From TrEMBL:
Name used for this protein in its record: Uncharacterized protein
Lineage: superkingdom: Eukaryota
Domain DUF2264 residue range list: 1-37, 49-189
A Pfam family matched in the record: DUF2264
UniProt cross-references to InterPro entries, sorted A to Z: DUF2264_C (IPR049237), DUF2264_N (IPR049349), UCP014753 (IPR016624)
Length: 191
């Protein structure tokens, strides 16, 4: 098992475990006697926000139980261990970890938040890596399905090719959470 990558270093806030710094405080530090307070509300919370620069939709539905990022165009260009599993998924959650492959079989690659395709009878699998530029738009959805109430949500589309010969094309569309399903996103993948 690999516990680190080439880019890991003590200055990285994601890897240096800064949350453990409180363990270095003395027993009589005022931190240990302070009252617990609620995390401050930032004001109005939007269910989904398009962030153009990283080509993502941040999802934090007010009635949801976790927040996550839809990341349709994200990829890792440099060679690292399990780069498609770590940096090329369609969604990343703050509450749920992601799988990293242990072998080539579908049970071993565990393609959570990915679409895995095979063209050799399930001997090998391909998932998204590089893609064409991400496109953002919006969609009007009836809530509940078929009802009068409508909700407009941002959507993102991306085209990608699972194999280098570009013989197979996938047009992926990601739809963020709605009032009807505040913890779910929808992926549509015409192949």
């Amino acid at each position: 098992m690999y516990m680190a990558e080439d880019y890991n270093s003590p200055q990285s806030p994601y890897w240096c475990l800064k949350s453990l710094i409180v363990g270095a405080l003395s027993d009589d530090d005022e931190f240990w006697a302070s009252n617990e307070v609620q995390y401050p509300e930032s004001g109005e919370s939007r269910a989904a926000v398009v962030v153009p620069a990283p080509q993502q939709i941040l999802c934090n539905h007010p009635r949801g139980n976790h927040h996550f990022a839809l990341t349709p165009g994200q990829f890792v260009a440099w060679p690292m261990k399990a780069n498609q599993a770590k940096g090329c998924k369609f969604a990343y959650s703050s509450a749920f970890a992601f799988s990293v492959p242990t072998g080539p079989a579908i049970q071993q690659i565990a393609p959570d938040n990915q679409l895995a395709l095979s063209r050799d009878g399930a001997k090998t699998w391909a998932v998204k890596w590089k893609s064409e530029p991400v496109r953002f738009g919006s969609m009007e959805i009836s809530l509940p399905i078929g009802a009068e109430k409508k909700m407009t949500v941002p959507v993102t589309r991306v085209r990608w090719f699972p194999w280098g010969d570009r013989a197979v094309c996938v047009d992926s569309m990601m739809i963020p959470p709605t009032d009807q399903w505040p913890d779910w996103h929808i992926g549509v993948y015409p192949v």
